[in-house]
Amino acid sequence: MEIRPTTDEDLDVFVDTVHAAFGRFPETPVEGGGLWWSALEMDRCLLALTADGRPVGTAATHSFELTLPGETLVPAPGVTAVGVLPSHRRQGVLSAMMRHQLADLRARGEFLSVLLASEATIYGRFGYGPATYTQRLTVQRHRSVLALPRARATADAPATGPDHGPYDVSDHGPDHGPDRGSVEVLRRSECGEILEDVYDRYRRAQPGALSRPHRWWALRAGQPPISPAPRYVAVHRDADGVPDGYASYSIGEPDNTLTVDETITVDDTVFTALARFVLGHDLASRVVFQHVPPQHPLRWQLADFRAGEVSGDTDWLWVRLLDVPRALTARGWFTDGELVLDVEDPFLGEHGRYLLTVQDGKADCVLTDREPDLSLDVRDLGSVYLGGTAPSTLVRAGHIRAHRPEAAILADALFRTDRAPHCLHWF
Questions:
Q1: What's the CA gap between 51 and 59, in Å, rounded?
Q2: How far does Cα 281 stand from its chain's mean position?
Q3: Annotated catalytic residue: which of 128, 199, 354, 427?
Q4: Where does the pLDDT of residue 46 fall: very low under 50, low under 70, confident under 90, or very high at 90 and above?
Q5: Which Pfam families does UniProt cross-reference here (predicted)?
Q6: Is 91 annotated as a binding residue?
Q7: CB of 15 closer than 8 Å to CB of 29
Q8: Residues whose CB falls within 8 Å of the CB of residue 81, separated by 6 or more in sequence, listed in order
Q9: Alpha helices of 367-420 — where are they, by DSSP H?
Q10: Cis bond upstream, residue 254 (ω within 30)
Q11: Are 63 and 43 in contact (CB under 8 A)?
């Protein structure tokens, strides 16, 4: 079997092969792009071929940036289009491609990679661990009144909902005082540059978020609101008229459900204003917010807490560390301390024991022969890396071994972040 990088001339073969691996057929090209594979970078794709040259497997990466805790931006290849023809599964093709890909990423100087797992049982064995999580929040419109916290509610700022001025966004927000902005409804085709700019501002401040390169927007590659699928967009503007948030939505079955693809904002006040807007849509019977971060405050802002029904709680971004010291020193830290991590990488046959020292928000990480505080697999280090999974949770689950009672508590304090990681970009 041969594994080789592709060229532009291999695009059709690559696309046909990955679709065959999943038992699907390529979509018919549409004017203006919109095909997920139109954003592929052919110099970052791999083909697995039999001895007689037949393609049987594919793998690729996108060039993204990942926002780490501390608002540090780092290169993060996004693994995608991984597939093996049904006739050649369980013959080592996938493992060979993943090993080849990881070696290629290291050769490019990259110290981590990310992916969205089609199946949760596949990628752990290659060193990837779930690092961010997402969920849906469904609100029945007749129960969607938003109530201000008691400490803030006044006679001049009553509860708001479908019957209390849904288009007025001048009520107080949760963290930033009164919202003096406004909301405007635009068609997706009218606000491409606005979406790109607002998303970029958002992702630079949100740990766990990925960049959306300009070519994705230009090619309309991906899911709404990037794709050409018809959508309305509620654009929020601040008091000076500058866009600082949006909600992409459509109304359909069943029973006039308003589905919000994504809500992108620079702060909680703007999110509340957009939520109030869509919850006040007269023609909707219910509103479904896709990709809401766990523990998001919107549910607590509902006057009826049970009106917010959580579902679809799932993993999203998986992280794989390729260079442990570089990865740990790249992110920001919020507690001082010292921890010895004994890290196994079974897939690559590697092992390292590292002394992690954090002081004043910066980390130093070096090899050591000191006794370990924690022993863990590289996939578990990927899970705790962004702060979305507490090390103590994995200790209790039997994934991580704590060699002294206080080690898990210290690890929780070190790896915690000022803001929970979240990713909603699909690739």
A1: 18
A2: 28
A3: 427
A4: very high
A5: Acetyltransf_17, Acetyltransf_9, SCP2_2
A6: yes
A7: no
A8: 14, 18, 37, 40, 45, 58, 59, 60
A9: 378-385, 391-396, 407-415
A10: yes
A11: no
Known catalytic residue at 385: no
Domain 2-110 has CATH 3.40.630.30: yes
Q: Could you please report the per-residue DSSP string of 65-92?
A: EEEETTTEEEEEEEEEEEEE-GGGTTSS
- Residue 119 labeled ligand binder: yes
**Residue spans in the chain of domains classed CATH 3.30.1050.10:** 324-415
Cα distances (angstroms) measured from residue 365 to each of 115, 333, 356, 368: 25, 13, 5, 9
| Residue range(s) of every CATH 3.40.630.30 domain in the chain | 2-110, 134-315
Whether residue 334 lies in the annotated active site: no
What pLDDT does residue 34 have?
Answer: 74
Annotated ligand binding at 129? The verdict is no
What one-character-per-residue DSSP string does 356-371 give? EEEETTEEEEEE--SP
Give the whole-angstrom CA distance, residue 248 versus residue 185: 10
140-190 residue pLDDT tens? 999 999 986 655 544 444 444 444 333 344 444 444 456 789 999 999 999
SS3 state of residue 179: coil
Phi, psi of 276 (to 5 degrees): -60, -40
Give the contacts of 327 (CB within 8 A, at least 6 positions apart).
Answer: 111, 112, 321, 385
95 carries a ligand binding annotation: yes
| Omega within 30 of 0 (cis) for the link into 225 | yes
Helix (H) or strand (E) run with residue 4 in it: strand 2-5
Residue pointed to by tokens 């803030």 = 152
Q: Annotation-wise, does 92 bind a ligand?
A: yes
Class of domain 134-315: alpha beta
What would be the CATH architecture of the domain defined by 324-415?
2-Layer Sandwich (3.30)
Reading the block at residue 97, the tokens are 């491609």
Consult the annotation and say whether 82 binds a ligand.
yes
Query: Is 118 known to sit in a ligand binding site?
Result: yes
Each residue's pLDDT tens digit, 257-300:
999 999 999 899 999 999 999 999 999 999 999 999 999 999 99
Catalytically annotated residue among 14, 64, 111, 123 = 123
| Residue 83 annotated as lining a ligand binding site | yes
- What span, in angstroms and rounded, lies between the C-alpha atoms of 137 and 289? 5
Cβ partners under 8 Å of residue 57, min gap 6 = 3, 17, 21, 46, 47, 48, 83, 84, 85, 88, 93, 94, 97
